[in-house]
Amino acid sequence: xxxxxxxxxxxxxxxxxxxxxxxxxxxxxxxxxxxxxxxxxxxxxxxxxxxxxxxxxxxxxxxxxxxxxxxxxxxxxxxxxxxxxxxxxxxxxxxxxxxxxxxxxxxxxxxxxxxxxxxxxxxxxxxxxxxxxxxxxxxxxxxxxxxxxxxxxxxxxxxxxxxxxxxxxxxxxxxxxxxxxxxxx
Length: 185
Description:
Layout: E1 2-3, H1 6-18, E2 35-39, H2 42-51, E3 60-65, E4 80-86, H3 91-102, H4 122-127, H5 131-141, H6 146-153, H7 157-171, H8 176-184
Parallel strand pairs: 1-2, 2-3, 3-4
Helix pairs in contact: 5-7, 5-8, 6-7, 7-8
C-alpha cells in the first residue's frame, strides 16, 4: 500500500486490516496480492506507482483518488489496474471493491462527480442482487420499514416486501437484521 497522504493511507490501511488482511508498505520484500494506491489525483497516483512495486506490473491494482480529471484516463496504463474509486466512498464500498478485485473483478467506472460514469455497485455485484434489491438492502441496513422504503423509492410497501423476501432468499439469511449484516460484510 502506498499513498501521498498519511491520514488517507492510515484510513485505507484501517479498512484493509478490518477486513482481516495484512498491510505491507511499498518497500516490503514479499510481493503483495493486491496493490493499493491512494492519491490526491491521477498524476500523483502515476508518480506513486513508480515508487511502489513497479517490477510487479501484473499485481491487481486498486487506485483510490480524491479527484478525477481527464488525466485519470491515463491510469489504465498503471500495472494491472482493476479498480478506480473515489476516496469519498464509504468504508463498506471501499472494502467491497478491494474484495471484488481480490476475486478477479474489474471496477473502473465510478462516480467522481457530475458527468462521470456511474459505478456498478460492488455490493450488488458481489451478492448477485438486482439494482432494486441493492437499493432496498441499503435502506434495510438503515433500519427503515417497508412503508418508509416504499415512500423513498416510490413503490408500494407490498412490493418492498416482495424484494425483501427475495433478498432473504438470495443472501441465505432468515430476517431483515441478517440482511443488513450480510450486505455490510
